[in-house]
Amino acid sequence: MATVLATEHPEDTAYGQVGDATVPLRFSSLAEEYRVLRNRAAVLDLGGHGLIQITGADGVDFAQRVLARDVEYLTSDRCMMSLVLDESGQVVDQVLAFGREDGLLLESSCGAGTRLLEHLLARVADDDVQITDRSGDLTVIGLEGPYAWGVVGRLIDAELASLPFESVVDTAWDDVEIVFARTGLTGEYGYQMIVPIESAAALWRRSLEHAQAAGVEALELAMLEVRQPIPRHEVTPGASVIEIGANWLVDITKDDFVGKDAVVEAFEAGGGRRTVGFTGCPGVPALGTRVQAAGQDIGEVVYAVHSVGLDATLGLARVTEDLAAAGLELTVGGLPVTTLTSPYVVPKSWSIPII
């Protein structure tokens, strides 16, 4: 399904199917959009992210059970990222959870809304819990970049630009009620606006007066460069939360949540494989390309692209635990690579204050 803003995109926009969504991969060129995101401000059509509301007298308790992080006291002025797991500890999705007065609003990763909705509905028992797909009446527009804060000031209110990370405000744009959040996926200043679909096109057009559109390719490249998890590329069958490197999105001190037993078992067992970044080989290796150390097979490539920021191949490999360290010389498909520590590219926002 195309995003609600598809009619606003340029005619030569390049689209791709990601899960249940048809999303804009590029509006112009990857290199141009990447440089805008890393050096100025980019506006993002995040309509491929599903929005699911959890309400009812037992809604918060239900969310506490299905989310791997603690959301019991997530107030309406806060949001947080969390994994959603199945009973075997496998990742269903990575969500952004917004506290709401009447429950929670979950934002899925790109193209995962249908899968997330089905997972939640299957786990509602006889409790007073309502699961509502809000993707038909709400959509998400993002802003990312070292000067995205300036766009916020010109669009809505300069005071919103300096909100603490993961803060949420119910505000208005052009007399339309929206949910505004300080988020960030790329290490740059980042914001999200959840807006009624009937007002989305007008907000998109107004945003383009102050920022340039960037597609999913530029966004995901920038996410990879700061090791922000991208579920559709990194979640592979059988891989544990620890192997993926997303254990920071799980709170094993919670009394209980779906998949906890499997996660605790993986933590206690140790060993297994880990995910590490690499660069160096010419060309972009295919997924599954074997990784070797001193001629011994130690793992495989799970994700690789050409990084505009590094002007080199950048990838993730899942390798044996003792070799998931930075500064090692390995081979990928017989070609030399060097492992890295994140961030692989230092965001410009880390040295630019909000004025």
Summarize the structure.
The strands form four sheets. A six-stranded mixed sheet has the order 10-11-12-9-3-13, with helices on both faces. It has a six-stranded antiparallel beta barrel with strand order 14-17-16-15-18-19. The chain has a five-stranded antiparallel sheet with strand order 5-6-7-4-8, with helices on one face. The protein has 355 residues and is of the alpha+beta class.
Characterization of the model:
With 355 residues, this protein is α+β, with helices and mostly antiparallel strands. It folds into 2 domains: 6-224, 2-Layer Sandwich (Gyrase A, domain 2); 227-340, Elongation Factor Tu (Ef-tu), domain 3 (Beta Barrel), CATH 2.40.30.110. It contains 10 helices and 19 strands. The strands form 4 sheets. The protein has a 6-stranded mixed sheet, sandwiched between helices. A 6-stranded antiparallel barrel has the order 14-17-16-15-18-19. Strands 5-6-7-4-8 form a 5-stranded antiparallel sheet, covered by helices on one side. The two termini are 39 Å apart. Residues 15-254 form the GCVT N-terminal domain. This is Aminomethyltransferase. InterPro entries: GcvT/YgfZ/DmdA, GcvT/YgfZ_C, GCVT_N, TrmE/GcvT-like.
Model regions low in confidence, pLDDT < 50 over at least 5 residues? none
The level 1 CATH classification of the largest domain is Alpha Beta
Kindly name the structural category: alpha+beta
Main sheet makeup: 6 strands, mixed
Shape assignment: globular
Helix content: 10-25%
The CATH architecture of the largest domain can be given as: 2-Layer Sandwich
| Nearest-integer average pLDDT | 96
Q: What string gives the helices and strands in order?
A: EEHEEHEEEHEEHHEEEHEHHHHEEEEEE
* CATH superfamily heading of the largest domain: Probable tRNA modification gtpase trme, domain 1
The termini sit apart by 39 Å
Q: Taking strands numbered 1, 2, ... along the chain, how are they ordered across the largest sheet? A: 10-11-12-9-3-13
Number of helices: 10
